[in-house]
Amino acid sequence: xxxxxxxxIIGGTGYIGKYIVEExxxxxxxxxxxVRENTASNPEKSKLIExxxxxxxxxxxxxxxxxxxxxxxxxxxxxxxxxxxxxQIADQVNIIAAIKEAGxxxxxxxxxxxxxxxxxxxxxxxxxxxxxxxxxxRSIEAQGIPYTYLLSNGFAGYFLPNFGIARTxxxxxFTAPPRDKVEIIGDGNTKVIFSKEEDIATYTIxxxxxxRTLNKVLHIRPPANILSFNEIVSLWEKKIGKTLExxxxxxxxxxxxxxxxxxxxxxxxxxxxxxxxxxxxTNSEVKTSFGVEASELYPEVKYSTADEYLDHEILxIGGTGYIGKYIVEExxxxxxxxxxxVRENTASNPEKSKLIExxxxxxxxxxxxxxxxxxxxxxxxMxxxxxxxTLGCWITRTDSCSSLPAxxxxxxxxxxxxxxxxxxxxxxxxxxI
Length: 433
Ligand SMILES: NC(=O)c1ccc[n+]([C@@H]2O[C@H](COP(=O)([O-])OP(=O)(O)OC[C@H]3O[C@@H](n4cnc5c(N)ncnc54)[C@H](OP(=O)(O)O)[C@@H]3O)[C@@H](O)[C@H]2O)c1
Known about the structure:
- By secondary structure, the chain is an alpha/beta fold.
- The protein has 20 helices and 17 strands.
- Helix 1 links the parallel strand 1 and strand 2.
- The protein starts with 6 loop residues before the first strand and ends with a helix.
- The structure holds NADP nicotinamide-adenine-dinucleotide phosphate.
- GO terms for molecular function: oxidoreductase activity.
């Protein structure tokens, strides 16, 4: 078996970091996550931390502002990946200092996860942050630390679930694309790139031991995901069988909005300007002298396309039952992102373990929950577009489901059964199978 480097992720409890930690552990790398003391005891993060532990991740207590803790962590690994948030980018000089002192690191991937750095075309505040990311590169090179710079381009979860409309939750997965009106940034013709976070993590982890990415920039530009805003909207329109009303936020209006908006809204708007108006994700070539493209380098990775991403996500409640298992299997086979609600006892029931294993092997995501546990139910349902209930005939009451809070953006389509795509929550009440 090929040598698997030991990997430390700093910022592994963050939005993109958690995918990197999970992928590193899944790919068999001895995986370490630097976790701050307060975070380890933060109830909001406790589930994530527990899931890290159960995947065999070693948690190391530390903080980028505590030099000794960093050096101690860095000394235990071969590769350091930073996924710290935008506010800590400049302070990655502390990580560089720790790597230099430890002297054992074979590769450092600083927190970039962005686009090629054409600062000339961006405006503040993102222009400033791009400058800071560039200065971190120069510090790494000045210290002679081996590196890979990862340009992931856009995170799908930040745009595709809602076309950039303000998110109601923290993860970006809690709203659906609009079904009536859409505001297009710019003229909508600029090409952009959005990749699924899991794929970004896959490419990142593949790169760490790859000599072809050593001291190179790794661009993630899967060809099927290079689309314009207009093309993305048109993919969605085909799926819902409806034409959206379009308005356009043109550059001068957007620039005015950036100037007038408080932080951090102005940052988000300046990113939209760089992405959708100036074409920062696509307006430069991958320079072969120091750049490589991930989907070319790793053709074996079957990345998710934006088209697939917009497919409905289906949750089956009762999927481990007689008819439910066929529904789950068919949903996965048809290419839908497929979820099955599984009770804790069922997950550990030896009689059901084969079925559960087969779900997993077909890419079904198992979500723990119970219809008598309202919170777990809300949490799982929030992750999907369509719910199919195949609860046994002795469970006829579906009050637990129907007491769910309506999500504005999805409330309307549920009223219609004209299109099978819209059979969303009707399935939980009138469409018991
Ligand atoms: N391309 C895109 O679409 C896109 C979108 C968003 C972000 N990004 C980029 O992705 C990168 C990561 O951003 P993100 O939004 O994923 O970050 P995030 O969710 O804000 O997470 C930041 C992480 O850094 C950790 N951290 C903060 N202060 C720390 C400290 N003093 N010591 C150690 N760890 C500390 C946090 O730990 P705690 O859990 O303890 O707080 C958390 O794990 C950034 O470079 C950002 O610019 C790209």
